[in-house]
């Protein structure tokens, strides 16, 4: 019975669930065996505050937490400085490390008004991306050619 109730709460307000059976298995394993599972959200702190749209996903993650999930909140402090154009029609302004740090602190404070900090693993992508350095990033870019990058929608729309 708790699995059915949990799934109703998790499904409430969703337009589509990609792998419902997998989620139900994870929830069932939590209730029957005490096995927690993880769900992830990645946010690039490119603005001083989270926006209203973020609250929708944070509330859904809080529902997962109520039913055994550990939320992995990945702060894209490294990627926020790059100016990633994902989903945008123009490039994002490049931010300095201090601005990104301040934004990330605000994101954490605001996210933890909805998420349970005790059931959240906070991570920063600079932990592994800083270690790459310029040489590592250049090496990564050699894995993609310009034609492949231009195939992406966000480049095409610019």
Automatic annotation (TrEMBL):
Q: What is its EC number?
A: 6.1.1.1
The record's listing under PROSITE patterns reads: AA_TRNA_LIGASE_I
A Gene Ontology biological process term: tyrosyl-tRNA aminoacylation
Q: Which GO terms describe its cellular component?
A: cytosol
First-tier enzyme category under EC? ligase
Residue ranges that the Swiss-Prot or TrEMBL entry lists as coiled coil: none
Q: Which SUPFAM superfamilies would you find in this protein's record?
A: Nucleotidylyl transferase
- Swiss-Prot/TrEMBL keywords: Aminoacyl-tRNA synthetase, ATP-binding, Ligase, Nucleotide-binding, Protein biosynthesis
Q: Spell out the family assignment given in the record's similarity comment.
A: Belongs to the class-I aminoacyl-tRNA synthetase family.
Could you tell me which NCBIfam families the record lists for this protein?
tyrS
Put simply, this protein is called: Tyrosine--tRNA ligase
| Organism of origin | Nitratifractor salsuginis
């Amino acid at each position: 019975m708790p699995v059915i109730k949990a799934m109703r709460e998790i499904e409430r307000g969703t337009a589509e669930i990609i792998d419902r059976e997998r989620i139900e298995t994870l929830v069932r394993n939590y209730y029957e065996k005490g096995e927690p599972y993880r769900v992830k959200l990645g946010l690039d702190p490119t603005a001083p505050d989270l926006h209203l749209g973020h609250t929708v996903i944070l509330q859904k993650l809080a529902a997962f937490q109520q039913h055994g999930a550990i939320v992995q909140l990945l702060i894209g402090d490294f990627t926020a400085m790059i100016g990633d154009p994902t989903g945008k029609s123009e490039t994002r302004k490049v931010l300095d490390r201090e601005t990104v740090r301040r934004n990330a602190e605000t994101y954490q404070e605001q996210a933890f008004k909805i998420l349970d900090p005790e059931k959240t693993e906070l991570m920063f992508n600079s932990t592994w991306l800083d270690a790459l350095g310029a040489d590592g990033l250049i090496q990564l870019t050699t894995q993609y050619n310009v034609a492949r990058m231009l195939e992406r929608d966000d480049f095409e729309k610019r």
